[in-house]
Amino acid sequence: MHMRHISKSFGATQALDDVSLSIYPGEVHALIGENGAGKSTLIKVMTGIHQPDQGEILLDGRPLQIRNSAAAQDHGIAAIYQEPVIFPDLNVAENIFISHRDRGAIVRWGRMHKDAATILAKLDVKLDVRMPARGLTLAAQQAVEIAKAISLKVRVLVMDEPTSSLSAHEVAQLFKLISTLRNQGVAILFIGHRLEEVLEIADRVTILRDGKWISSALRSQVTTEQVIQDMVGRQIEDFFAKSQAERGDLLMSVRGLSKENVFSDINFDVYRGEVLCFAGLIGARRTDVGLALFGVEPADAGHITFAGKEVKIHSLEQALKLGIAYATEDRHRFGLAILMSVATNITLPTLRRYLTALGLVRQSDEYATAEEYRQRLSIHAPSVKVEVGRLSGGNQQKVMLSKWLNAGPKLLILDEPTRGIDVPTKAEVHHMINALAAQGLGIILISSDLPEVLAMSDRVLVMREGRQMGLFDRKAATQEKIMTAAMGQNRPAMEAQP
Amino acid sequence: MARSATSPAGGRNLLLGAWERLKSWEGLLLGVLVVIVIINSLQAPAYLSIRNQTNLFQLFIEKIIVALIMTFILINGEIDLSVASVMGLAASTLGRLYELGVPIEAAFLIGLAVGIACGLLNGFMIAYAGLPSLVVTLAGMIGYRGLAYILLEDRFIGNYPEWFSRLGQQPLIGPFPLALVIFFVLLVGAIIVLQYSAFGRYVYVIGNSREVARYSGVKVRRVKMALFIVSGLVAALAGLLYAARLGSVRGSVAEGFELDIITMVLMGGVNMYGGAGSLYGVLLSILIILNLRNGMSLINLTGHVQTGVIGVLLILSVLAPNLARNIQATLNRRRMRHLAGTLSEAQESP
Amino acid sequence: MSALRRYFRPEQVRELVLVFLIIVLALFFGTQIRDYYTGRTFIRISTSVAIIVVVAMGETLVVLTRNIDISVGSIVGFTAYFVGTQLARHNDIAPLVAVLMAIGIGAAMGLLNGILVAYGKVPSILVTLGTLAIYRGILVNYSGAKTVVANSLPQWVINLSSMNIFSIGELDFRLLVGLALAVVVFFQLMLTYLPYGRRLYAIGCNPDAARVAGFPSQRIVLVAFVLCGALCGLAGFMYLARFSNITVVAAQGMEMSVLAAVVVGGVSIFGGSGTVIGALLGATMIGLLEQSLIRWLVISEFWRRALLGLLILLAVEGDAAIMNRLRKLWARSELQMAPKQENQ
Question: Is ipTM over 0.90?
Fold first, then answer.
């Protein structure tokens, strides 16, 4: 299967730019790239969920139009996602065969159970085919999905981060499955973020960066260092850089913060006037740490000292009272009520300040506050009474920041504040972060954008799958070091001294 | 090119369209209302007299009162199908207690308490147990009605003290009886709370997105709980007023009222999925339903047929915005495709 | 133990409990009501259950897809009345034509529900709340406040309800009961052996996965509503055969018995799980209760509705809690077994 010169854009963002890729039978082809490099979009083009703007897909040398997922299935292309797509109330065998349209007009249960058992046996998976899929472990569900793909006579199997929720033991089993498939002549496109794993299983490696094709090579011809180099190989744009601010007093120190099955043993200090970056890849659980500090999903163990006092944060109200604010990465789901006005959104967490004795909202005060932020952050909106949904992404981001700045936080947690916004606005956001730090706020910046991390941070904490992999000083941090830690290549011994 | 640079142009158009549709929706309602009133006036000359209009209000006053709180609940993104059964249960409780010799005042208060209890159960199941309100209140609609039947079986309980019966019928202030006065007080209160208070603000934001509200420190569960409790209380009050107006109670009191009530609110432009709508639209739609029902009576349509017409309105008031959105989306998609086409041509030409 | 768990899912536990309850109820009423164990009681209960069961089958299909149809009572009433008047007017209509007419009218009404839900994207509860009123309104308008009376109907319709297919000792199985059993068997087979039946479960338990798998979800939902309407039509005909005298309020409130049968029978109101057997048992229990209570306390229609209401309330609200707990218990025991499997 060849994909030639594929391009795809969503609005102003170019998700894929002239990407070409060839997948051969009996080969595991690994696709590697940072978050947002365009891997997922490429898969969606392959499986017919998106149509490419340009470029063509060839299968056996013949050009192919994949209109929808059913068409992809007919051509023998199947995908397995991070979260398995199963029907919990149907049994294992049925989940394997539910998409089949060639098994006759009548479901023959006996034969189906036998066939399912045969396929599972071929994969060396031990599962009771009569058991409902509800309650199967993630690994077992994935095995069911793979069995389903095989039963559909799959020729090209796309696996999108299949290992991210599996334990080491389960990963080993999955890899055994993949080897079996490879030996049966299936072409596999494997997307992963644990470099050691990916390199272990891959026969061929392609690297994407910012929607562009960077390199393709046989596994035997590349080294880990080369791969990391290719993934990050970007110049740090110089228009955003953290101005050196005086580091103030200790604001918060976190020791041994843990949450069962999510993250464990996170330790760091944040000082006033400091930007601490959380770096890592998808699934590193950085957001979960942020949410724990904000009290939305409280941690179950660990000590937090905030402004000199030992505290326990188990609710959002408490975090707000302490002066912790969290600006989410997912503006639409958690950040802004898009049908409501700019002013309503800005004053939402602090609405109590705008109430009269009777509990009514003093709208003039509310508008005044919103107007102040509109000018200070230069939010491009005709008025603060306009619905937030009508602003551009960058301006929405500024509204969300205003909302939390208005709460007067001491510690501001920013989760991917520049994702999906244009370059000038990005620079504005960075300036603002600088200004806030200069005012003595402690800032935790969660970012997957490595140049941004290096430019903005005073210190960088790198996480991988809920574990803290290292804490680097600004001077000591390089893209390669951070990526190495984030991919779990080795556990760097060097810990920055505060 | 300049257009495509602002990426959410499509989304913006959509929202703009939503706003304009809402504006034109209320305009449409007003138009429909005027037409109905004119037709009715032609049928019956004294139609527009204050007396007749007051009577009209009085005939449906209980439904209208409940529609006010239902507006809050639908804006909040939930639904309460159990209101009519709560009305019936409260009225039946009153009847049964009175039959047992409890003073009517105490029975009245206990009736209200029963409404609050129903609201508590609904609210708990929805806000804290996390079940969908559609399922919980559907079960409530059937279950509370069942309780009402247990209380009264097939008896009529009447012969209340005179002052109680007059409560529902006799003019209290000017030509307006108590129920109408209560309605106006509640209406003003509802407008103030919904449009100007912090609580109303939270109702909208939660309807917009429960998660956004939660991440902004809004106590989502408490707001939902409060709404359902008030809904139970208001429904009970309406049920008791209904009992006073009818002068007698039986288990089937207010059966099927939820259809009118929900139609009033949804036809008023309140979004089925929450987050948008206003009491002004609901007020317009209430007036339409009142006048329409009255007009249908004027041309001798039976109750069942009238209810059928309301059913059509209910479906239309959800279907119409859906269709409008579909058409808008198709147009947008076509425009985007056109834009993409011209873009790729522009790229290929040099 | 694991084998036991394998064959006794939480759903089956519930069905066994239902069977047990039905037996207990029958024994209880036997001690309370004189001459309870007679052929007549059996006929009365089984015929009543037969009509509920047919509608409950249709409701089950709809509920499996995470929807609900509360307009069933109106469809049954409409078809019963309409076919009744046609038969009264034209006594020479062939029996098969009459049945097909009932099924066709029901299916058309279901089609309207289905189109509005699947393609109009209006929540099913609102659609059917509306059509519940609309269909009844049309019927009242059409009837001109007249009633279908038994002596205007052709003789074969009236004989239908007393026709036996076979007897076991004193127990007579009426034709209507046989018809209902045939419907149950047919839908049991359909839901287990036809791909369409399995897809009903699939889209109910995970609509997103159904979309990824490329199922025509809209069409599947539409067909479920049409089938439900058709079954209501059939039930309407059975209703006509059983009662012969049909007023415009025929089968009003029947949605309550049907919903009660379905939810008590363990068809999840959240879609995706439930069986035909469960619905049959649910209907049996409801029918048994309804018919026996009338004879025991000579209680009114109102007690019947009260009981149904409370049963639904309990089944829905209590069930969500109990079944979740059972499922968790099952899931936990599977987790404990998992390491053992790995060692094999």
Answer: no
Residue C326 confidence (pLDDT):
64
Half-sphere exposure at residue B176, Cβ-oriented, CA atoms within 13 angstroms: 11
Q: What is the structure's pLDDT at C81?
A: 94
**Nearest-5° angle of CA C112, CA C211, CA B334?**
80
Say yes or no for a CB contact (<8 Å) between B314 and C126: yes
Q: Which of residues 5-64 of C touch B (CB under 8 A)?
A: none
Alpha helices in chain B (DSSP H): 2-5, 9-43, 50-75, 83-99, 104-123, 133-152, 162-169, 178-196, 198-208, 210-215, 220-246, 257-267, 279-298, 303-348
Residue B30 CB neighbours (<10 A):
14
Partner B, chain C 233-272, Cβ-Cβ below 8 Å: 248, 256, 259, 269-270
Class of domain A2-232: alpha beta
The correct CATH number of A250-486 out of 3.30.70.1290, 3.40.50.300, 2.60.40.420, 3.20.110.10 is 3.40.50.300
The answer to whether residues C74 and C139 touch, using CB atoms and an 8 Å cutoff, is yes
Judged on CB neighbours under 10 Å (0-12, 13-18, 19+), A294 is buried
Weakest-pLDDT range from B171-185, C7-21, C201-215: C7-21
**Which of A200, A174, A202, A175 shows the shortest CA–CA distance to A30?**
A202
Residue C280 or residue A64, greater confidence: C280
Contacts of A296 in chain B (CB under 8 A): 214-215
**Mean pLDDT score, A352-375:** 88
Mean pLDDT, residues C300-326 taken together? 69
- Kindly report, residue by residue over A95-131, the tens digit of the pLDDT: 888 877 677 778 888 888 888 888 888 877 788 888 8
Q: Which two tokens stand for residue A487?
A: 């991919």
Q: Where are the domains of chain A?
A: 2-232, 250-486
User: How far off is chain C from A401, nearest CA to CA, in Å?
Assistant: 33
What does the pLDDT average to over A61-87? 78
Q: Do domains A2-232 and A250-486 have the same CATH topology?
A: yes
Q: Which residue has the higher pLDDT, C311 or C103?
A: C103
Q: Which chain A residues are Cβ-neighbours of C273 within 8 angstroms?
A: 89
Is residue C138 less than 8 Å (CB to CB) from chain B? yes
- Domains contained in chain C, CATH given: 2-332 (1.10.3470)
Q: pLDDT by residue (tens digit) across C215-253?
A: 888 999 999 999 999 999 999 999 999 888 888 888 888
- Contact across the interface for C134 and B142, Cβ inside 8 Å: no
B19 touches chain A (CB under 8 A): yes
Inter-chain residue contact A99 with C214, CB threshold 8 Å: yes
Q: Give the separation between CA A196 and CA A219, rounded to whole angstroms.
A: 12
pLDDT at residue C331, as a whole number? 53
pLDDT band at C58 (very low <50, low <70, confident <90, very high): very high
Contacting residues of A for C193, CB less than 8 Å apart:
106-109
Phi/psi at A276 (nearest 5 deg)?
A: -105, 120
Is B197 in Cβ contact with A361 (below 8 Å)?
yes
Domain B28-335 has CATH 3.30.1330: no
Instruction: Please report, rounded to a whole number, the percentage of residues in chain B having pLDDT higher than 70.
Output: 88
Q: Do B81 and C125 touch (CB under 8 A)?
A: yes
Could you tell me which chains touch chain C, where touching means 3 or more CB pairs under 8 A?
Answer: A, B
- In chain C, the residue whose alpha carbon lies closest to the alpha carbon of A100 is C195
Contacts of A355 in chain B (CB under 8 A): 198
Shortest distance, CA C336 to any CA of chain B (angstroms) = 27
- Provide the whole-model pTM: 0.80
Identify the closest residue of chain A to C209 by CA–CA distance.
A85
